Amino acid sequence: MNTTIESYALLGSEVARDASVVERLRNAGAVILGKASVFEWYHFRSSGIRDDWSARRIQAVLLLFLVLLLSGSGTTPSNAFSIKEASVRDLQTAFRTNQLNSRKLVKFYIEEIPKLNPVVRGVIEVNPDALYQANLADKERKAKAPRSLYGLHGIPVLLEDNIATKDRLNTTAGSFALLKSIVPRDAGVVTKLRKVGAIILGKASLSEWANFRSINAPDGWSARAEATNGIGDTEKAALLNLAKLTRDGFEKTMRYKQLDAVVTPGSAAAPVLAIGGFPGITVPAGFDDNRVPFGITFGGLKGSEPKLIEIAYGFEQATQIRKPPSFKP
């Protein structure tokens, strides 16, 4: 088994020995069944991440009928079979008894997504080939050649948007920066899903860049998932207000005081600089009581990049904080 603290960074790594508690459990005859989830790195990555978040768990494949229709409703015409209450085994039984087929199941979800998505914003994109895949699954089942009799054959699934699919779906990690990009191949989990006959219904939303862009971004937020139909009066007013705050705040102060740069510890100034499109540079500044490094940010007006680089370089030369790591033998 892997020991990863719920991070993909440690997936596949080898530990030197069993933990002492594991040794005692084995000596007592206990069976180690598996690993339970924890919050990634025990919150060391960010104290702002919610307690149940982890990269390994958040990228798990989401079975659509368990996620999307908790509050929805729908039945197929025959015998009032309830899709929303069915397990995978129930759905496979319905397939075998002709109460349901994959096309009807996929079509039901495709019709339900527009009804629920404006509220939950759980689906970024629907696979344009989902119904085609459903037809293939039905043909294979009719030919008595299902890829998995009690498994995922003909079952639609959603994937988080950072799981690559080599098809007409986008893989963007919730960001417009990767929209229309082309991935070289299916992710390993996708290859396995296709092999057992699962239908890739679409991409589910996730925190943009899996929260790597900003530790302060709200969980579940992404640019693609929150996209609107355009900029209306409210949005225009907000943009004008941001421009006014920048003009009458940061920019006015810098010009009035004739400042070359503003200095802040860490990267706290990043949101202020980003709103007005101002440059900033962060360099090492020291270590806290626990020997964790922290930085210092120099920000300035537009066009001040050469001056900021000069200031940052001078700070580095004066403090000599940036040093190659050393290890005791």
UniProtKB/TrEMBL annotation:
<dbReference type="InterPro" id="IPR036928">
    <property type="entry name" value="AS_sf"/>
</dbReference>
<protein>
    <submittedName>
        <fullName>Amidase</fullName>
    </submittedName>
</protein>
<dbReference type="InterPro" id="IPR023631">
    <property type="entry name" value="Amidase_dom"/>
</dbReference>
<feature type="domain" description="Amidase">
    <location>
        <begin position="105"/>
        <end position="214"/>
    </location>
</feature>
<dbReference type="Pfam" id="PF01425">
    <property type="entry name" value="Amidase"/>
</dbReference>
